[in-house]
Amino acid sequence: MPAASTRIQASTKRLLSLGPSRVDHIPAFRIALGLAIPLSVLLVTGHVDWAMYVGFGAFTGIYSKYEPTRMRFRRQSMAGALLTVCVTIGATLAQLGESMGTTAGSWTALGVGSVVAGLAAALVLRLGLKPGGAIFPLFAVAAIASAPPAAPIWAAFLIAGACASLCVVLGLLGHWAGERHPGADVRPAAESWSRAQLGAEFGRFALAAAIAGVLGLASGLPFPYWAQIAAIAPLSAPGRTLQVERGLHRIIGTTLGIVTTAFLLSFPAEPWQLVVWVVVLQFLAEMYVLRNYSFALLFITPLALLMVQLAHPQPIGTMLQARVLETVIGAVVGIAVVITAALGDRRAALRHRATDGEPGTDGS
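and the corresponding structure tokens:
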């Protein structure tokens, strides 16, 4: 009981307190700038409906935040290529969905998104990219696939690629703004992972995304990919306890973030005003995401929803309600996958221990 009480106190502290600052404003400004520049170009040229292509390409800047400049360049280049491919896959699915019909298109996007989540998670693990997991690749594929095509596939590829390249350049320029981290404690660029480990990573993410997506689609809610994202969000945290916490924080933070979103969308706003809010929210999200995940979701949730509103406006009430319900569905699935894996590991350990204890198995 005392041990359980200690764990509960530690979990509560992590929920309610902020972690130490790491000069967060420099990478937060760089990341927000990588989003502000291309969104401003869209406003000037009258192509705000391309906002999702820009947004997912600009997520390149989020990777390799606290790593030395050379390592950041390499890893952001790899992350940018991954996100550009995912945007292109999403744009292809959106085009196919026009001829396949709503139901077939939704199931196709769900299946492809689940596979992408598994493959991206394994690739991110293999390459040592941070943040880990597959939230951004899955988000790119699923969100773009679920919206009407806003541009030809080749245009989506070029837009995302250009924004990713911009963020890589800004990552280099960050060196002169003080974002160097020469003594950062980082893992080697090429860490060794066995096929079994990479396969397990693929399986966890693909299974969680698939189950959550099926439940989200079966529920009749309009954005089943939100359930998929919520399901894989806990899986990248280090350790089973923190993974369960991450799922609970996802529910709490998203629910509170809906209040922020409802306030921002409670009055008429021009596209340029939404762009300003998106950039500000991106900055605030990056200021706090590593210090308190649930608090950061106060900004991450409206950021994601305002991006959707920019590119493909939705009825606000329906969108907000769906976000909460699908997040709960997905987070519960993610937590269930974590607990099931933990129980499986415990049973395997007990069998191994029992085998080791059998007469003759120790060589005697």
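(Above: one complete record from the training split.) Residues 93 and 108 are 8 Å apart (CA to CA).
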